[in-house]
């Protein structure tokens, strides 16, 4: 199910976006929820969601797989242990197959594992089986990174798997539910003309590893 609460809203920064998303999520029913921020930009948004739901916070990592020779053009994504996810239409348009990208995929998988080790600092991952699991990011554009992360989380057997972001492209948002990647998708804003995620923030500076580590350490202490 899609839960949308606004039209074409913009946000001051990730803290503002997280607070507004948390307000919407706090009014919904949850069963033993756990919140995962999609690193890196999703973590400062997820902090506010975890606080509002009084839920533990963990981190998820998905790495972009770029088109050959075009490092900024993401056509897929992969997590530490889940299956890779590709934009099939883009692959076909470029005349590529997953086998063509196998080496890139394994390199990005290794980097995802390295980042998870760094972010968790020796902590075990949160148990997810039988719980409501919310994957939070700062926005949803093509959806390929979210799909990769959701695919890995689905294997942990949550009772309900939810994707939440302050702003989502409508087509990608609807596809997550239609394809069964998420049981529910929650967003504050889903503008008709989307563009890039950063265009809906007045301040969209890069989130650092240090900010991710600080947020996770603080929630672990509390």
TrEMBL record:
One Pfam family here: Pribosyltran
Lineage top rank: taxon: Bacteria
GO terms assigned for molecular function: glycosyltransferase activity
UniProt cross-references to InterPro entries, sorted A to Z: PRTase-like, PRTase_dom
Keywords for the protein's UniProt record, in alphabetical order: Glycosyltransferase, Transferase
Family annotation (Gene3D superfamilies): 3.40.50.2020, PRTase-like (3.30.1310.20)
Domain annotation Phosphoribosyltransferase: ranges: 17-172
Membrane-spanning residues: none
SUPFAM superfamilies named among the record's database cross-references: PRTase-like
UniProt protein name: Phosphoribosyltransferase family protein
Organism: Pseudonocardia adelaidensis
């Amino acid at each position: 199910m899609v839960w949308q609460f606004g039209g074409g809203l913009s946000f001051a920064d990730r803290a503002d976006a997280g607070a507004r998303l948390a307000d919407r999520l706090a009014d919904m029913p949850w069963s033993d929820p756990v919140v995962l921020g999609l690193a890196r930009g999703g973590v400062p948004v997820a902090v506010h969601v975890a606080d509002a739901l009084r839920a533990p916070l963990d981190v998820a990592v998905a790495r972009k797989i770029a088109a050959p020779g075009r490092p900024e053009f993401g056509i897929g994504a992969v997590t530490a242990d889940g299956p890779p996810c590709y934009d099939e239409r883009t692959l076909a348009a470029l005349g590529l197959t997953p086998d063509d990208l196998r080496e890139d995929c394994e390199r990005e998988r290794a980097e995802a594992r390295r980042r998870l080790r760094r972010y968790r600092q020796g902590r075990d991952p949160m148990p997810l089986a039988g719980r409501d699991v919310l994957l939070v990011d700062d926005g949803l554009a093509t959806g390929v990174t979210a799909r990769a992360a959701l695919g890995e989380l689905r294997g942990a057997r949550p009772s309900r798997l939810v994707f939440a972001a302050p702003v989502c492209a409508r087509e990608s948002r609807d596809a997550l539910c239609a394809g069964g990647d998420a049981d529910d998708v929650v967003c504050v804003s889903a503008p008709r003309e989307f563009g890039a995620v950063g265009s809906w923030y007045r301040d969209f500076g890069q989130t650092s590893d240090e900010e991710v580590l600080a947020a996770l350490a603080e929630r672990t202490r509390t």
